[in-house]
Amino acid sequence: MAEEGFDVVVVGSCMTDLVSQAPRLPKAGETIHGHKFFIGFGGKGANQCVQAARLGARTTMVCKVGKDFFGDNYIQNFKNNGVSTEFVGQTDKAATGAASIIVNDAGENAIVIVAGANMMLGDKELQGAGPAMGGAKVLICQLEISPETSLQALRMAQERQVKTIFNPAPAIADLDPDFYSRSDVFCCNESEAELLTGVAVSSVEDAGRVGAELLRRGCGSVIVTLGPQGCVVLSSQDPAPRHVATAPVTALDTTGAGDSFIGALAFYMARYPTMPLEEMASRANRVAAVSVQGVGTQTSYPYRKDLPQELF
Ligand SMILES: Nc1ncnc2c1ncn2[C@@H]1O[C@H](COP(=O)(O)OP(=O)(O)OP(=O)(O)O)[C@@H](O)[C@H]1O
Ligand SMILES: *[C@@H]1O[C@H](CO)[C@@H](O)[C@H](O)[C@H]1NC(C)=O
Q: Where is the Carbohydrate kinase PfkB domain (predicted)?
């Protein structure tokens, strides 16, 4: 590691998903029987990191989990995926982040997220990871940790000439304007773009309009993902919106598709720094399309060996 440095550093969240499937969602005070339960590894930061690692990026995760069973398990999950755990901290002051999810037979859900240990990631941990950040190619962060920590991570990366990808998810309406100027690539989905700009996004043209507004706010480049329609890409050097379409696939479970896309994008930015952003986005579309054809979040993310060679 020392002489080579990391390709991708993720400063972000880890969550354990506790998923119960039931015929319907329970009412207040009610107990009902479900038919299936499973535990999954989630959290936007960790998802993005795992996807980048599976494509072959040297990755490290800067995050905080609890000193508990779920925290221990998550660290093992990173190791199983070849993600460095040097900067994964464990605290006894909060539990590992958890999402309790109930899904009914119609596919609707009710979710309680307890961020827990994720909110205890702060300045001290970032300073500890500073030297490793310095030798890295790309840093990614999101908003499932404290926004101040994310913004500081973006600043530290740019001071060290590390490219930044910022994913404003889950979106907050009053985003600190510094997030835009600190984003080399600002990557969001339709609902996030809408919340940030106040402009409804329901077409490729709308995505181009909100993308232009986000560029005006100071981002280097903007990508708005559009589910089965792929994405729209704009850059300050090339501000005309470009639609990067994707081949239609039969989606089985789109959970975590956005994170697969961003993990893949980070891989391409780190390993193919001179590739045009549109080409990276086109390849990231193809990686994310594989993820929607399998069930679960990280369980559906492809490895390099499962993908066509022309993507590398
Ligand atoms: N039905 C689909 N067919 C092909 N590709 C898809 C489909 N859905 C999503 N994708 C791919 O995944 C990327 C991200 O999808 P989307 O814009 O829905 O992100 P998201 O809303 O953040 O995802 P999610 O919230 O479901 O994790 C798209 O840009 C596209 O490349
Ligand atoms: C965008 O991502 C958020 C998570 O940040 C999700 O809740 C929302 O459903 C997504 N929107 C679309 C249009 O997929």
A: 7-302
**Which pLDDT value is given to residue 143?**
98
**Pocket mutation for ligand 2, best pick of 175, 191, 196 (most atoms within 8 Å of C-beta):** 191
Query: Residue 189: in which H helix or E strand, if any?
Result: strand 185-189
Annotated binding site: 15-17, 43-47, 144, 189, 225-230, 246, 253, 255, 258-259, 285, 291, 294, 296, 300
Q: How far does the chain reach from its first CA to its final CA, in angstroms?
A: 22
Q: In 3-state terms, what secondary structure has residue 44?
A: helix
Residue 152 half-sphere exposure, CB side, CA atoms within 13 Å?
Answer: 16
This prediction has a pTM of 0.97
User: Is residue 201 within 6 Å of ligand 2 at its C-beta?
Assistant: no
Residues 145, 181: contact at Cβ < 8 Å? no
For the annotated catalytic residues, the residue numbers are: 259
Tens-place pLDDT, residues 202-246? 999 999 999 999 999 999 999 999 999 999 999 999 899 999 999
Which residues' Cβ are closer than 6 Å to ligand 1? 189, 225-228, 230-231, 246, 249, 251, 254-259, 261, 285, 288-289, 292
Residue 227 CA to ligand 1 centre (angstroms): 4
Q: Quick check: CB of 82 below 6 Å from ligand 2?
A: no
Q: How many CB atoms lie within 10 A of CB 186?
A: 28
Beta strands across the sheet bearing 163-166: 88-91, 59-66, 8-11, 138-141, 163-166, 185-189, 221-225, 231-235, 238-244
Is 52 in a helix, a strand, or coil?
helix
> Burial of 22 by CB count in 10 Å (0-12 exposed, 13-18 middle, 19+ buried)?
middle
User: What is the predicted pLDDT for the residue at 162?
Assistant: 98
